[in-house]
Design a protein that fits this description.
The protein is built from 14 helices and eight strands. By secondary structure, the chain is of the alpha/beta class. It has an eight-stranded mixed β-sheet, sandwiched between helices. The longest helix is centred in the middle third of the chain and has 15 residues.
Amino acid sequence: MFKDSLKCFPASLALALTAALCGVSQPTSASGQSTVQSGPESPQVESPSDLGDATEPEPNGASVTEELASRPEQAETPDQAVRRLYRFEKNAGLVYKRGEDYRLTCDVYVPDGDGPYPAILAIHGGAWRSGSKFHLLRHSWRLARRGYVVVAINYRHAPDHPWPAQINDARTAVRWMRSNAQRFKIDPDRIGAYGYSAGGHMAALLGAAADESSLDGEEDEGLLEFSPAVQCVAAGGAPCEFSWFGENSSALAYWLGGSKADVPENFRQATPLNYVDRSDPPFYFFHGKEDMVVPHSTSEKMHEALISAGVDSTYEMIEGKGHMASFSNLDHLNDAIVFFDRVLKPEVGSNPAPASETGAGR
């Protein structure tokens, strides 16, 4: 019933519904970027200090400071090292890409210590047309406290910058991370992607379509020697295919340039499911069963395709929750961290081959 109603839904109402439920409340500038930015040009809403002295309770009820204070002074086992809570430094508003009419920034959260650390590219949602890195602020804090360098990005928005600008920017961001690996204590062979909604779609494309040079835009020559591949993907509420839109629906025309009938190649190219093969990295999907913005069937189809191809893929169906509730509950981020730990931290085991051996590194 939902699928049928969406196919005949007026485009303007479909977009309004999508914007409202995806948390799209900020206007965009002429360059497609949110007018409310999280960088040096505007005040930061931050934890008690930029060094990560956050006291948000963790799942076991202990705050960061309480757990650090109660830890006995003894040599860590590998299991303890995985669960260590880190202080971190935030580097806000760093420019990772420039164009004639845009300037894209990111926030980089770096755990204390020598490193190198595994890294996560954090990609916000907002229907490819709004939002900012600020939307993943709490997620970035928690990942950094768990020992990950986090790079939360802004990217170009439709309609000023239609497809494929968004995935162009995400691929540039991964290359930028590798080119700055030493500066930010990143292990270039251990990079994952985390995204929700439109961000989950882009994360899925990063994982499944790493070798698709057609998804690259204009790139700085100095970055081309670095790979845009990631070693694992956590995608929430992600549209991984578009069968739930009718052939003549204009609901995504602001982003893809028309309906399926008008621009079939754009829809094909923007569909993560189309790129699935056995070489893909491990995936973790989570999706609200009551999601009325992005039906869970779309990410289930990609999960099933990955399994059929022999790829490590895990799927969590969240009972009783819709699109925004599944995003805002950080318990689901904790599950993603368990996945990232398994794949990206060698002390846990069960890791993929190093990126340098698979062409994913420099």
